[in-house]
Design the sequence.
């Protein structure tokens, strides 16, 4: 029996492993099983070359545990080790610079595990003692036993082992007894070892018999040794890709289509990425792309490793050029990872272009489920955006699809305004904005559907790239003003507008946190008597603030809703209200207007007399007179407005017209809606 010290001059290795990896201590099983798989593959390679007569026909890795003895054992019939190799690979880790490395990374143990073959020592994260029994494949080799209790001291002695291979026996410490549980071990093996290239066995398969679960004689193999991504695309059918997706996501909806990655230069990369059906939200789920290194699971948290928009995809990426056991910050800065990320972006764009070109009809059918992904990519990844211009589609309210070029050709003659801007009209809710859409179509305009959470951001990006293209939501103005062809003419005088404004302002809702601005437009006798519109800029800023959830955009999100109540000055019912106003208030308002005219004339004369004089040169009497005039004017204007507002509140037709506009926009609710219904019945009778 040989005793000695592990070849590392610092005693910090075991405390680092136990302390700093404790949050991820289930990683120990991945490390030990992966080492066993490597040893098995090495023996298979030697056998294939004819360098050993040892049979590898039933080579497998076996994981077992004993709850009473508090041990977990990982056994393989791989290449094994001689006593000299145990010395070299387990004891002698005093490589050049080892202590400096430990000092540098002692606060980031993830960067230690996996470097320089230290993965074996992850077993001490859960063990107070580790025992290794191993027998080399070399002819006449003596089996040996190695033991260590977590201190630098170890024991190495001859042992008995019938077959070639290695047993790693971990004596689980008190803090880690959770791992002495079948379900817990099965969970870890499924997480890390589901696709390892050598069979991994854990216990026996079970079956239901006489109303209870019983073990069979058949080994329970937990992994698929040849998953779909390891095969050539030419050897796979559509059903194989679907079957593999089911393996990854048993409860997911069927994907739209997939991309099979198979690259061997300038780096090695394989994998299958699936396009899921995305709802009208950005479903960035962190566990949908699984990252592997030589079929060993690395992480399912790929943000920062692949571009943000690719995190919407599902599937597997596997590359030996991705370090297996390092920190995420290291992965994010690794040059190979960056190259791989760029390559995947290119492959995704090329695949979408290929699908679009080969079967546009099918691409259009999938567009609604796919557009969130493409839009997110265009917003966040410049290189993807350049390529996406070739297959990005607009969809209009008639359900037709257009490329950029096709749509520009469709609308340029009728939807170019007087300043030469091409105006893209869109709706975000076909039902709510139905009337606006119909008005636009009646003028020969085409209307797009842009109804997802990214639309506002995407529109801003489009407009920034080409200032001569404007996107205008269909309810942001009356139809005649959506695309300004020429200056509008209004037959309503300024005085009539001034007197109608308080009438309708008085019957606008005042208790729902919305501010209404009354405006007047000539919209034709057949147009709606009143239309409610939303300011395009403010509405867009508020939409974006909702998506961003705060930050600088939250300024807009906190602002009260502001709507325009546009009164059609051509409509007979509006003219009727104007006539009723004149009939009820004509005499009184006439006297008020006469007094105002006289007072303002006197005010204007005094203001003119002040011109060119310094303040001290103006007589005090004139200043007092001006102040007195301003007070009288303000009092009369206030009185006039109060009379007009009182008329408006009492005028059922004015209230009915405003409520109709509110109703058309889904803004009439509760008690106001009930009053509207009762008033409607009354007016009909």
Sequence:
């Amino acid at each position: 029996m040989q005793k000695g010290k592990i070849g590392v001059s610092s005693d910090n290795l075991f405390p680092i492993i136990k302390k700093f990896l404790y949050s991820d201590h289930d990683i120990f099983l991945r490390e030990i099983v992966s080492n066993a798989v490597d040893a098995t593959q090495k023996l298979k390679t030697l056998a294939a070359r004819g360098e050993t007569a040892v049979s590898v026909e039933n080579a497998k890795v076996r994981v077992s545990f004993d709850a009473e003895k508090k041990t977990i054992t990982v056994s393989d019939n791989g290449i094994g080790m001689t006593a000299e190799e145990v010395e070299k690979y387990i004891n002698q880790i005093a490589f050049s610079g080892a202590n400096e490395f430990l000092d540098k990374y002692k606060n980031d143990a993830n960067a230690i595990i996996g470097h320089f073959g230290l993965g074996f020592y992850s077993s001490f994260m859960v063990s107070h003692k580790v025992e290794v029994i191993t027998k080399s494949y070399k002819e006449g080799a003596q089996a040996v036993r190695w033991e260590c209790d977590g201190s630098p001291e170890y024991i190495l002695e001859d042992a008995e082992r019938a077959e070639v291979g290695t047993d790693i026996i971990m004596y689980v410490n008190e803090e880690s007894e959770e791992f002495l549980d079948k379900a817990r071990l099965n969970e870890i093996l499924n997480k890390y070892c589901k696709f390892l290239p050598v069979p991994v066995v854990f216990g026996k398969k079970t079956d239901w018999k006489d109303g209870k679960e019983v073990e069979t004689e058949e080994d329970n193999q937990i992994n698929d040794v040849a998953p779909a991504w390891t095969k050539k695309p030419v050897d796979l059918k559509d059903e194989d890709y679907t079957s593999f997706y089911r393996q990854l996501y048993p409860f997911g909806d069927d994907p739209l289509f997939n991309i099979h990655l198979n690259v061997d230069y300038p780096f090695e990369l394989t994998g299958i990425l699936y396009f899921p059906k995305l709802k009208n939200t950005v479903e960035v789920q962190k566990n949908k792309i699984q990252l592997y290194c030589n079929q060993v699971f690395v992480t399912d948290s790929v943000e920062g490793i692949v571009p943000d928009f690719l995190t919407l995809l599902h599937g597997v990426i596997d590359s030996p050029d991705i370090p297996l056991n390092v920190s995420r910050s290291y992965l994010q800065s690794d040059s190979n990872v960056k190259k791989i990320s760029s390559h995947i972006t290119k492959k995704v764009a090329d695949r979408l272009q290929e699908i679009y070109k080969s079967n546009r009809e099918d691409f259009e059918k999938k567009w609604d489920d796919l557009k969130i992904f493409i839009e997110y990519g265009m917003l966040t990844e410049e290189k993807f955006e350049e390529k996406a211009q070739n297959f990005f589609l607009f969809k209009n309210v008639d359900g037709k699809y257009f490329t950029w070029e096709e749509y520009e050709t469709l609308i340029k003659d009728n939807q170019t305004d007087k300043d030469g801007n091409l105006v893209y009209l869109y709706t975000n809710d076909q039902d709510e904005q139905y009337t606006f859409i119909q008005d636009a179509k009646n003028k020969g305009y085409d209307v797009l559907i842009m109804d997802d959470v990214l639309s506002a951001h995407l529109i801003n990006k489009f407009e920034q790239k080409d200032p001569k293209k404007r996107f205008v939501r269909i309810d942001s103005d009356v139809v005649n003003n959506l695309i300004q062809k020429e200056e509008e003419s209004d037959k309503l005088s300024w005085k009539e507008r001034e007197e109608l404004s308080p009438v309708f302002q008085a019957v606008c809702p005042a208790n729902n946190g919305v501010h209404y601005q009354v405006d007047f437009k000539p919209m034709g006798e057949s147009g709606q008597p009143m239309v409610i519109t939303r300011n395009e800029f403010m509405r867009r800023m508020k939409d974006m603030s909702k998506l961003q959830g705060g930050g600088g955009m939250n300024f807009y999100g906190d602002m009260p809703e502001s709507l325009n109540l546009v009164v059609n000055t051509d409509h007979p019912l509006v003219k009727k209200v104007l006539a009723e106003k004149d009939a009820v208030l004509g005499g009184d308002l006439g006297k008020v207007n006469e007094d105002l005219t006289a007072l303002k004339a006197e005010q204007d004369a005094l203001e003119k007399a002040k011109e060119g004089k310094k303040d001290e040169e103006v007589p005090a009497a004139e200043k007092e007179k001006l102040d007195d005039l301003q007070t009288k004017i303000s009092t009369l204007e206030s009185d006039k407005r109060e009379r007009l507002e009182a008329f408006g509140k009492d005028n059922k037709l004015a209230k009915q017209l405003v409520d109709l506009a509110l109703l058309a926009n889904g803004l009439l609710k509760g008690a106001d809606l009930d009053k509207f219904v009762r008033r409607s019945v009354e007016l009909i009778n």
